[in-house]
Amino acid sequence: MTTSQPIVNFKELIKRPVCFLGLGFGTGLASKAPGTFGTLAALPIYWLMKDLSLTIYLILTVIAFFAGIWICQQAANWLGKDDPSAVVWDEIVGYLVTMAAAPSGWQWMVIGFVLFRFFDILKPWPINYADKNLHGGFGIMLDDVIAGLMAFGLLQISYSLWA
């Protein structure tokens, strides 16, 4: 995975709506920890979705995943890199996966955020396998969805133990 930041400014980015999405509404331009900033961009999206029925929530998340394959590929092509750190749509979707059926309350949003970032940064197996061996938009998306699934599992276990 490439970690160096591309030289892109916000003015250029907003001229390319697909890349604007791919770079998490500009949060991927952060010079440090763009993945964390991308995940922060997911918080208001989750907040808008949290009261939807689980079925609608999951349908929207699946749509965001499949759209993200194309979005991330387009943004990566524009930046000229296989998996640029500035492309953070995958973090947004990964967080939405983490928060599916999450208990209500801001503390669970924070716990979900921390759990997702933990798995996304450390990349234990099978996340690291997907990160190293899958490429293009699908590869960009899948490792974060796996991280989201692992964080989802731990979030649900945590809730069942603490509730």
Poorly predicted residue ranges: 1-5
Number of helices: 8
Instruction: Give the tally of β-strands.
Output: 0
Helix content: 55-70%
Strand content: under 5%
Largest sheet: none
Radius of gyration: 15 Å
| Mean pLDDT across every amino acid position | 93
Number of domains: 1
Q: Structural class of the helices, strands and pairings?
A: mainly alpha
- What is the 3D shape? globular
Order of helices and strands: HHHHHHHH
End-to-end CA span: 38 Å
Would you write up a description of this structure?
- With 163 residues, the protein is mainly α.
- Helix content is 69%, strand content 0%.
- The protein has one domain (10-162).
- It has helices spanning 10-13, 17-22, 34-49, 54-79, 89-98, 106-122, 127-133, 136-162.
- Helix 6 (106-122) crosses helix 8 (136-162).
Q: Could you give a short description of this structure?
A:
With 163 residues, this protein is an all-alpha fold. Helix content is 69%, strand content 0%.
